From TrEMBL:
It holds the Pfam family PK_Tyr_Ser-Thr. SUPFAM superfamilies: Protein kinase-like (PK-like). It comes from the Eukaryota. It comes from Guillardia theta (strain CCMP2712) (Cryptophyte). GO terms for molecular function: ATP binding; protein serine/threonine kinase activity. This is Protein kinase domain-containing protein. Residues 197-219 are annotated as: Disordered. Residues 1-232 form the Protein kinase domain. The lineage of its organism: Eukaryota, Cryptophyceae, Pyrenomonadales, Geminigeraceae, Guillardia.
């Protein structure tokens, strides 16, 4: 029901569903390029790809949040990759997928706690406290770390150790090697222990076309400060060789 409401180029499309009382089957768009998890851990990621992926996730998540939907299981395995043809040639497109744990935001009650995958799960969820859409911003910060570090967060800890350390000791990943300072600061702001101090996914303006013909998501120009947002800044933070 959540998926059926959604229609956005960076959100996996639902085609149909069958519910026969015993099983629920859903039919979705096929996104044949594997997941971001596969991409991070098997291939080098060049800066243009990182820009397209990060911008696509921002746009998809902005849309979901504008529809009152909290994903609650945002992680590289649930970000699917596709190449689409355009006049400028093939373009990498990321689609936010797997809403098995999502539900429409309901401000009147505390949502179910203890869900998701511990690495990407915000501390307030791990503590079964009331939470809001900022849990997805937390997950996005961890994903940015994984993209840059190219390894699993907390790879030396099991799920229980991660949950306890994150929820009770404010434990977070260390700075990735050679990580630009502004980029590291952005990750830290996304996984701030106080949800209200995390940035929000922005309302994203239409991406301009670069001189190379690839559609890049860029921060708005100075003439439109009202639409500027810190989550877009990371797009300019990656060194060219990343
Ligand atoms: N619509 C899709 N098109 C193409 N591949 C998909 C699609 N949905 C899922 N996959 C791929 O299928 C695999 C299984 O996905 P699934 O969501 O069932 O499990 P998961 O993401 O590994 O774990 P979790 O249940 O925690 O989300 C993943 O590798 C994912 O990339
Ligand atoms: Mg999944």
């Amino acid at each position: 029901q959540v998926l059926a409401m959604l229609d956005h180029p960076h959100v996996l499309r639902l085609y149909g569903a069958v519910d026969d009382d015993e099983n629920v089957c859903i039919v979705t768009e096929l996104v044949p390029g594997g997941s971001l998890f596969d991409l991070i851990h098997t291939k080098p990621l060049l800066r243009p790809a990182v820009i397209v992926i990060g911008g696509g996730v921002c746009k998809g998540m902005t849309y979901l949040h504008s529809m009152g939907v909290i994903h609650r299981d945002l992680k590289p395995g649930n970000l699917l990759m596709a190449a689409v043809q355009s006049p400028a040639g093939p373009q990498l497109v990321v689609k936010v997928a797997d809403f098995g744990l999502a539900r429409v935001q309901d401000s009147t009650r505390t949502m179910t706690g203890g869900i998701g995958t511990s690495q990407y799960t915000a501390p307030e969820v791990l503590r079964s406290e009331r939470y809001d859409s900022k849990v997805d911003v937390y997950s996005f910060g961890i994903i940015l770390w994984e993209i840059h570090a190219k390894r699993l967060p907390y790879s030396d800890m099991n799920q229980m150790q991660i949950a306890v350390a994150v929820a009770t000791q404010n434990h977070r990943p260390p700075p990735p090697p050679n990580c630009p300072a502004p980029f590291w600061q952005l990750m830290q702001s996304c996984w701030n222990s106080r949800p209200a101090e995390r940035p929000s996914f922005p309302e994203v303006p239409p991406p301009p076309r670069s001189s190379h013909g690839t559609r890049f998501l860029l921060p708005p120009p100075p003439s439109s400060p009202a639409t500027f947002h810190p989550l877009l800044c990371f797009l300019d933070l990656f060194p060219a060789s990343f």
